[in-house]
Amino acid sequence: MLECVLFYLAEYPQQRINYAKAQMVLGARDRRTIREHILEGRKIIEKTNLELTRVLTELPGFGRLPEQKPGTELYEALIDTVNELGGAVRRMDGAVRSEMPVIGYVHSSYVFHRARNPLKNPLNRVISNLPFFDTS
User: Considering the entire predicted model, what is its pTM?
Assistant: First the structure.
């Protein structure tokens, strides 16, 4: 469901919910359910973007925060931050690698915030390790 909400927010970034389009994308019929899913998706995107900016601030020599212009939509700002983190990872590692998709970061943030018990590692630590492929 999270991936469908992300798809909806990417296609229809305006604040007002288009229930006809959301019903087709999410597969839900109840307006309250659609609204809850979309509002929760927006919250998770905001939290994910915040954590990604925290990770970028810890990499001052390799990455910088993307410019956030007024009126930038949540999903667009998240894409810019993910792209900047991907560039920082390439500069740090020097290797060409497949980039972590946006859903990977959003899902990690979602799981972290929905966990019943506090997790051992902070979220910015988890997110900073996601783009690096390590088989050890």
Answer: 0.83
Residue 5 has pLDDT above 60, yes or no: yes
Report the distance separating Cα 57 and Cα 60, nearest Å: 6
3-14 burial, b if ≥16 CB within 10 A, otherwise e? eebbebbeebee
What span, in angstroms and rounded, lies between the C-alpha atoms of 18 and 16? 6
Report the alpha-carbon distance of residue 83 to residue 131 in Å, rounded: 11
CB-neighbour burial class of residue 81 (10 A; exposed 0-12, middle 13-18, buried 19+)? buried
Q: What region, left, alpha or beta, does residue 16 occupy, with left being phi > 0 and alpha being psi -120 to 50 degrees?
A: beta
